[in-house]
Fold this sequence. Notes:
CATH superfamily of the largest domain: Periplasmic binding protein-like II
CATH architecture of the largest domain: 3-Layer(aba) Sandwich
Radius of gyration: 22 Å
Helix content: 25-40%
Structural class: alpha/beta
Order of helices and strands: HEHEHEHEEHEHEHEHEEHHH
Strand content: 15-25%
Number of domains: 2
Largest sheet: 10 strands, mixed
CATH class of the largest domain: Alpha Beta
Number of strands: 10
Distance between the termini: 53 Å
Number of helices: 11
Oligomer: single chain
Amino acid sequence: MTTTTRILTGTLAGAMLIAGSAQADRSDWPQSFTVGTASQGGTYFVYGSGWANLIADELGVSGGGEVTGGPNQNLALVHTGDLALGLTTMGPAAEALAGESPLAPGVKLDNVCALFPMYETPFSIATLANSGIESISDIPDGATIGFGPAASTSDTYFPAILEELGVNFERRNGGWNDLGGQLQDGLIDVIAFAAGIPIPAVSQLEVQTDVNIIEFTEEEQQQVIDAFPVSPFQIPASTYQTLEEDARAVSMWNFTIAGCDLPEDFVYEITKLSMENNDRMRDIHRSAQFSVPENIEYNTVLPFHPGAVRWYEENGYEIPADLKL
């Protein structure tokens, strides 16, 4: 056997061993997975479905996004194992972990682990330009307001926020696309969104009609920050055609989640793929520009999955001891 042949044979044998090892490492991986998103027409659906396709394509595991009621339902379904992965916001996550989820009162949903930060969810308000509503104080008594799917982040927090600001309203639930159609048809007066920007349903409305994006006054913003687990936020003017300058709002952080009992290697590869390919994540939705490891600090609630912890620590990011299993 020549030296070249020995080298080639050794290289091939090594490659086979690596391939065999990789195959063995996948022995406990799920054969398929589902990502819980939210209603069509919202950012969760676009982000979650695109992320699911990225995972499936790159890791060779069958998977996709699923329409759900949003963060609260995703927490419950990931906890029970009906969904492997999902998207949620920190407010509902804290309530779920404390046994205060509106979908499972008294049950601590503690089989839910964080993976990585997504983006901030601004709370924003839209109405038709011909409504005459240009501020929150302009919303008439008894106005019909769409708050998104029942038990979503928007439906959980926005009614209470508007009540805090003295708005009297009739509540309407539904998917964002459906509510956008109702607004355009004059069946509701206002939509109160809690979704990553740009919100597809608002962008679609702008193409078809004139809309007003309603911002919080400084006083309203501070009043809401004092009363709820939210932060100050500015919706950049570049987000929508309608905006001529940045719009004042409040926001809440979103994280991807996984069942804590999912295989560590599987979650490690998902985290690695998501955190090392931000350009591809931004191709899914531009709000993914904030889906970077530096923003893990905004999760102070859920433990990180051991697979995610491994990737972060390998890459120099510290996870607090109380956020490890």
